[in-house]
Structure formats: C-alpha cells, structure tokens
Specification:
By secondary structure, the chain is an all-alpha fold. The protein has helices at 4-35, 43-57, 59-80, 88-113, 126-133, 135-152.
Length: 160
C-alpha cells in the first residue's frame, strides 16, 4: 500500500459525495415536476417515476459503500505489501498531509451543501454528510490503521 492511498480515499469519497449530491439536486426537482404533470398519469409512467425516486434515495448508501470498499481495499493491500520500518516516518508525514487535504475537502463540502441552491437536498444525504464533515478524523484513523497493519505484521521469511 502506498501512503498516497490514504489521500486517494479522501478524494474519491469527496468526489462521489459531491457528484451524487449534485445529481440528486438536479434530478429530484425534475421528478417532482413530472409527477405533477397531467401527461404522466399512466401506470407505466408513475411506476418509472417512483422507481427513479427510490433510486435517488439510495445514492447516499452508494457513497457509504464506496467509503467502506476503499477502507477494506486499504486494509487488504496493507497486509499483502511489505513495508520497511524506515519508511514509517514518511508514511506518517503523508498521513498528516492527507488529514490537511481532508480538512479542506470537508470545508468545501460544508460550503457547497449549505448553499441555498441545494435547499433540502442535504436531508437526503445524512450518511454522506456525516462522513464528509468528519472526513479528517476518518482519514487519520484509516491512515493509522494502515500503518499498524503494514508495519506491525509478523515478518514472513521466504523459504528458498
């Protein structure tokens, strides 16, 4: 595992959260206006619009799934990649930089999600909001777990 994977987790989760947040904010008003249109009163149209609304409600879980998948990937790669303890200090410095980047991303999320343009969209993303507001803490803990797994595992000598 490269130390930059910790930074990558923060950036990918931020990109997923912002992207899906914007998709929800754009599609939800369209679905609402189509539901109230006289043209879309057929049972097929109503079923499609209800299915789309259900899908929009699941976008928050998609961000959580991406976050958990990236954490599991970091843990697995940390175990399988050997690390020299001399590089632990460099890894620690990269984690500190990752926490700083995560703090910036968290502030951007707070600014964007609090904008009046998005209205009540934030209420549909409670998990994403929690992850993004506490992203620096999560990145610090994930980085520490990565250090522990990478450098504290037993040394396995190769027979040969």
């Amino acid at each position: 595992m490269a130390a930059s994977d910790v930074v990558l987790i923060g950036v990918l989760v931020f990109a997923a959260a912002i992207g899906l947040f914007a998709i929800f904010a754009a599609v939800d008003p369209v679905i609402t206006s189509m539901e109230h249109s006289k043209i879309n009163e057929s049972s097929t149209a109503v079923d499609v619009l209800q299915g789309t609304r259900v899908m929009l409600g699941k976008l928050d879980y998609l961000v959580m799934g991406v976050f958990i998948a990236l954490i599991l990937g970091l843990i697995i790669t940390s175990w399988f990649i050997g690390g020299n303890p001399l590089f632990m200090f460099v890894y620690f410095i990269v984690i500190v930089l990752a926490v700083i980047v995560a703090a910036i991303l968290s502030n951007v999320w707070e600014t964007v999600s609090g904008a009046s343009v998005f209205g009540t969209t934030l209420g549909s993303f409670p998990l994403s909001n929690h992850i993004m507001l506490l992203l620096p803490y999560y990145i610090g803990v994930i980085g520490f777990i990565g250090i522990v797994i990478m450098f504290a595992k037993p040394y396995l000598s190769e027979a040969g």
